[in-house]
Design brief:
Length: 106
C-alpha cells in the first residue's frame, strides 16, 4: 500500500505506449493532410465519390460510403484518383514510407 507522499511508479508498458503515441504520425494535422488527399506522396485516398467528392482508400470503403450516404442512387465503380491525375501508382518497397502510421520515426 502506497502512502500519500510516495509517488506511484509507471510501468514500462505505460512509458512505451506514451512514447509511441507522442512519436508516431497518426495522420492528423498538416502532415496528414497530403496523405489523406492522396495527391502527393502516393497517399491513401485513391478513390473519390462522384456525388459528394469525398475520398476513400479502397473500393470496399467507397462501396460502404455509397450504400450509407447515397442509397437511392445506383452504385458505379469510381475511377482511381492516381490514374486520373496522371500520377504513377505508389511503388511497393521493403523500406517503410515516412509519414504513414507506424513509421520508424523515434
Amino acid at each position: 500500500m502506497t502512502g500519500k507522499a510516495k509517488p506511484k511508479k509507471h510501468t514500462a508498458k505505460e512509458l512505451q505506449a506514451k512514447a509511441d503515441a507522442a512519436l508516431t504520425n497518426r495522420g492528423g494535422g498538416k502532415a496528414g493532410l497530403a496523405d489523406r488527399t492522396g495527391k502527393e506522396k502516393g497517399g491513401h485516398a485513391k478513390y473519390e465519390c462522384p456525388h459528394c467528392k469525398i475520398t476513400a482508400p479502397d473500393l470496399k470503403t467507397m462501396q460502404i460510403h455509397h450504400e450509407s450516404k447515397h442509397p437511392k442512387l445506383p452504385y458505379e465503380e469510381p475511377k482511381n484518383l492516381h490514374e486520373a491525375l496522371g500520377a504513377a501508382a505508389p511503388e511497393s518497397s521493403s523500406k517503410p514510407k515516412p509519414g504513414i502510421r507506424g513509421s520508424l520515426k523515434k
